[in-house]
Amino acid sequence: MNENNVESILHEERLFPPSAEFSTKARIPNRAALDSLIQVANKDYVGFWAKQARAELSWHQPFEITLDSTNAPYYQWFNDGELNVSFNCLDRHLKDKGDKIAIIFEGESGDRTTLTYQQLHQRVCRFANVLKAQGITQGDRVVIYLPMVPEAVIAMQACARIGAIHSVVFGGFSAESLKDRIEDTEAKFLITADGGYRGGRIIALKAAADRALKSGCKSIQGVIVLRRTGHSISMITERDLWWHEAETGISSHCDPVWLNAEHPLFLLYTSGSTGKPKGIQHASAGYLLGTITTMKWVFDIRDEDIFWCTADIGWVTGHSYVTYGPLAVGATIVIYEGAPTFPDSGRFWKICQDHGVTVFYTAPTAIRALMKAGDNIPAAYNLSQLRLLGTVGEPINPEAWMWYHRVIGGGHCPIVDTWWQTETGVHMIAPIPGVTTAKPGSCTFPLPGIDIAVVNAQGQPITAPDQGGYLVITKPWPSMIRTIWQDKQRYYDTYWRKFDGKYYLSGDSARRDEEGYFWIMGRTDDILNVAGHRLGTMEIESALLAHPKVAEAAVIGRPDDIKGEAILAYVTLKETCSIGDKALIIELRDWVADQIGAIAKPDEIRFVDNLPKTRSGKIMRRLLRSISRGETITQDTSTLESETILTQLQEKN
Ligand code: WTA
């Protein structure tokens, strides 16, 4: 277990209770209100969720069965009910909120557009008809590879409307990664764009898509291409269709397809500690319910709020808190296409000011990067509309928390540090902003209806304060992962086997302090958290190994001020290659970027003669971690194949 970040947070004693002003207006205004929710949930969590599902979702066919555990841990929720997610996000608001702005969009170059709920509904319906006209029907998979533009949300919602299962691939992923995902989903259609703007450059999405399709992806029958940048791209007549041309003459009336509550809503690929990325499969009703309850409890969302979650739709945060949750509660959202530092580090704050953002949600890595730019930059903007701030993706270091609170929140905004995962669908551990006293660096307590424990390797709860252990979820919850696409066994092995199907294993380690606050300590498996994104060390290693000159590779994370973790790769080369070749370092870094995407590019590559291995041939990554951090070696090195390797590695430091 990685317990290295415990030190810095262990003695955090600053307390931040919400202000009376915030609490009075909050949806959950005081301890008594929260306790009563928690008590009901504790007494009968199934009944609690049934009540929430009846109150928060619009059902076509009401459900009778709340939780079906027959095939546990392949749990099902509300599975004799029927609804449509897009109907819940759009149609049901039209009567009262048709003219309310749903989306405020700002492109990187400053272009702006807005869509009301009425307009968004029309665009989703029209595009859903386009998909139908292309022969896409319920259960078909559609891969979406788009920049952060309103059409990304429209495409997702249109899929949901007709029961097609979308799988969004982050625009920063390479052709190779796109291909793997298309092939694993066996998608029938790909939706992409000519390009998108990021960091002052054009991201050539269509060109990457062409490369992916050229080398495989036999299931793809057609490609829909959004014109965003207008630069010249090649279109293949038989296969490619412009979005705007496909919409010509198409009706904007499209009845939603009523779907079983358990119908898969989407697949989203995330890194595993072994093998290729896993297609996390989410269902419809339970997932949507979780996005709604957390929008209300954690983001305390109100009708007049302007809500901005900065995550890209390529990540789960962009699914739950851009496309689904905020629209399901009828909120106004901001979507921004580009980089936080374009044209300078004031961009986020300018957007907050210009659009009057009231609730702002971002990642610690962005906060740290913008903090580095100094206090003068945010000081130049009027941020007084902000009333609530959030973070997600990795533990936030107390220093960044304090800066966020003081400089961005003006000392008066509560901060919700939300712990959750692609697999959990929505927030699991997070403060209730009008009630919970925050401690910088802690995600505080599990939400109502969610049962979480820290246990030892035998699965027994750890009762002593500040003792690290496995973070597990002890009861099923509506927005939980249903399975891994096409791999039921891997679902069981990854999340349930360790505790015999009794607990969901998050893969994180955590501790609770004397007052029961949860502190996330890091991952227990070989997953890196680089700039808030999960990357499997395995994936990066296999990318390196695919290079003709590489013999062996071991990838580890080392602490990084901005990114949380930086990627360090130890590489041994095939005999004919010379060590210390600078050009080769560049070549290998670019190679990984090509194979996986720029986010996976190693920050540093060290060539070595040998990697430390156990006698059974397993690379000792933990040992490499200690060496790279210059720590004294406390691990047992007696199993090491050869002790001289150690000396050589230490010299390389
Ligand atoms: C980490 C992102 C500490 C954690 C929603 C988890 C966090 C992984 C927090 C999931 C937080 C996420 N504090 N760590 N508030 N939020 N993590 O699937 O290690 O991209 O297991 O989902 O990010 O990453 P994922």
What value does the average pLDDT take?
A: 93
Q: What is the number of E strands?
A: 30
Second CATH tier, the architecture of the domain at 526-652: 2-Layer Sandwich
Content-based structural category: alpha/beta
Show unreliable segments.
Answer: 1-10
* Count of alpha/pi helices: 21
How many angstroms does the end-to-end distance come to?
23 Å
Broad CATH class of the domain at 526-652:
Alpha Beta
Rg over C-alpha atoms, rounded to the nearest angstrom: 24 Å
CATH topology name of the domain at 526-652, in short, is GMP Synthetase, Chain A, domain 3
* Amount of beta strand: 15-25%
How does this model look, in words?
The protein has a domain of 127 residues: GMP Synthetase, Chain A, domain 3 (2-Layer Sandwich). The N terminus is likely disordered. The chain has an eight-stranded mixed beta sheet, with helices on both faces. It has a seven-stranded mixed beta sheet with strand order 5-4-17-16-18-19-20, with helices on both faces. Strands 21-22-24-25 form a four-stranded antiparallel beta sheet, with no helix packed on it. The chain is 32% helix and 22% strand. It contains 21 helices and 30 strands. A hairpin with a 5-residue loop joins strand 24 and strand 25. It is of the alpha/beta class and 653 residues long. The structure holds 5'-O-[(S)-ethoxy(hydroxy)phosphoryl]adenosine. InterPro entries: Ac_CoA_lig, ACAS_N, AMP-bd_C, AMP-bd_C_sf, AMP-binding_CS, AMP-dep_synth/lig_dom, ANL_N_sf. This is Acetyl-coenzyme A synthetase.
